[in-house]
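Protein modeling request. Please complete all fields; requests missing the sequence field cannot be processed.
Requester role: graduate student
Desired output: 3D structure, token encoding
Chains: 1
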Amino acid sequence: MTGLLVPPGHGRNLRSAVQEVTFKVTGEHSNVASCFEVVVPPGFDVGAHVHTHSEEFFYILDGELEVMAFEPRVRTSTDWRTWHSADGRRPVTAGEGTVIVVPPGCPHAFANRSGTPARMFFQASPPPDHERYFEELFAILNSPGPLDHEAIADLRIRYDIEQLTPMRHAT
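Delivered output (171 residues):
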């Protein structure tokens, strides 16, 4: 039995004009979680969404992200940045060293509102759903022609992602 060592700068890298993800740990290596390094460019907003079965963990390595992880009093469909919870929580700007834990069923979102890229470590349980989701998402994002929003919506449904507000990105 051997462990896994992934040096800095290594792992399978997926890139598009709107996001970059490097696979660090996959279902091939762990029964517990898939792990990724994610570069979030300025202007990218994943949109509020919820997973019925997945648990997620985020650790901000560089830069800052606006984040939220709570059930809002009202789920508006336009902008999660205006949401607030029954106990007063609101989206916050989170910097390096911030940890966000998202249990199944909890709405959550992140966006880079700064002028510089942010980088985070992202873990999703159980594997390999997020691995497959990213592979298929990047195939859509890197396809020629206009972005196929219907294909992305179908993809999210297949991978336990209920999109609550739109994904947005700077062009």
